[in-house]
Amino acid sequence: MSLVVLKLGGSVVTDKDEAETVDESGLAAAVDAVAALAEAGQVVVVHGGGSFGHHHAADHGVSSESGTHDVAGIREINDAMKRLNDAVLDALAERGVPALPVHPLSAGAREEDGSLSLPLAATETMLGEGFVPVLHGDVIAHAGKGATIVSGDDLVVSLASGLDADRVGLCSTVPGVLDTAGDVIPEITAFGDAADALGGSDSTDVTGGMAAKVQKLLALGAPAHIFGPEGLGEFVAGESPGTVIRGSN
Ligand SMILES: Nc1ncnc2c1ncn2[C@@H]1O[C@H](COP(=O)(O)OP(=O)(O)OP(=O)(O)O)[C@@H](O)[C@H]1O
Ligand SMILES: C=C(C)CCOP(=O)(O)O
């Protein structure tokens, strides 16, 4: 049975400029795509932090690089991500998708060198039992730093390689990775293919925006598709919307 790893960008499922605001129409379109993928095979969903995680993380000075030992701050970030996760799970349940949460704060950790340890037992067993695991960017224990932020993009890379996914898609609010003229770059095989145009996010963001996303996906060593909400249908149909990141490792 085919296995797809699909990221729902925080910019899709939330209004990234309004604190803790779900984008109902973006979420609805994304969940319809997940429902279709779940009908056809196995799917693992990862969603980003959007205006839930990033705003609270920024308030506490926590990012993928900067950590904290402030328990109240860690809990504030994780609680916000669980609220967004509940909204995604509820929308999936309304469409009859058997979705269950996997919270990275309680499932994984970062080693001192920053490498991510994400045991897959919960995710793999959920898949084997016919469930749809839903993970999300989160705050995560980090040896030597207390806790830092793990991006949904990091989780996508870890899951796709650990589960040997057949297809990887990342839905954002842009139609793909854009060049300096604003056109979609069809394929990226090296960071230099788009370096001039790659930047952070237009909204509050503590995990590096599109530049970090492309860098992480190039390390995956398998094709990953970056597309906008209008590309969800094509991705579900097995086509290649937006930009394909084709790294080698
Ligand atoms: N060359 C580029 N092409 C496309 N988007 C770019 C580029 N450079 C910077 N960006 C910015 O990156 C954003 C997408 O990255 P972002 O991390 O915000 O996406 P996301 O995964 O939906 O969000 P989240 O990280 O909350 O899950 C775009 O909204 C755009 O503002
Ligand atoms: C900021 C938090 C807590 C999540 C970051 O995940 P991302 O939005 O996928 O980068």
CATH homologous superfamily (4th level) name of the largest domain: Acetylglutamate kinase-like
Q: For the largest beta sheet, what order do the strands appear in spatially?
A: 3-6-2-1-9-11-12-10
- Total domain count: 2
Write down the secondary-structure element order: EHHEHHEHEEHEEEHEEHEHE
Report how far apart the termini are.
26 Å
State Rg: 16 Å
And the CATH topology of the largest domain? Carbamate kinase
- Counted beta strands: 12
Average of the residue pLDDT scores: 95
- CATH hierarchy class name of the largest domain: Alpha Beta
Main sheet: strands, sense, barrel: 8 strands, mixed
How many H/I helical runs?
9
Low-confidence residue ranges: none
SSE topology sketch:
Blueprint lengths: L2 E6 L1 H4 L10 H17 L1 E6 L2 H10 L11 H24 L4 E3 L2 H4 L1 E2 L5 E2 L3 H8 L3 E5 L1 E5 L3 E5 L1 H11 L4 E5 L15 E2 L20 H10 L5 E4 L4 H5 L6 E3 L4
Helix pairs in contact: 3-4
The chain binds adenosine-5'-triphosphate (ATP) and Isopentenyl phosphate.
The site of Isopentenyl phosphate has 17 residues, from helix 3, helix 4, strand 7 and helix 7.
Characterize the structure shown.
ATP binds at residues 7-11, 209, 213. One of its GO terms (molecular function) is kinase activity. The protein is an alpha/beta fold and 249 residues long. The protein has 2 domains: 1-35 and 42-166, 3-Layer(aba) Sandwich (Carbamate kinase), CATH 3.40.1160.10; 174-249, no CATH class. The protein has helices at 10-13, 24-40, 50-59, 71-94, 104-107, 121-128, 152-162, 209-218, 232-236; strands at 3-8, 42-47, 99-101, 109-110, 116-117, 132-136, 138-142, 146-150, 167-171, 187-188, 224-227, 243-245. The strands form 3 sheets. Strands 3-6-2-1-9-11-12-10 form an 8-stranded mixed sheet, sandwiched between helices. The chain has a two-stranded antiparallel ribbon with strand order 4-5. Strands 7-8 form a two-stranded antiparallel ribbon. A hairpin with a 3-residue loop joins strand 7 and strand 8 (146-150). The two termini are 26 Å apart.
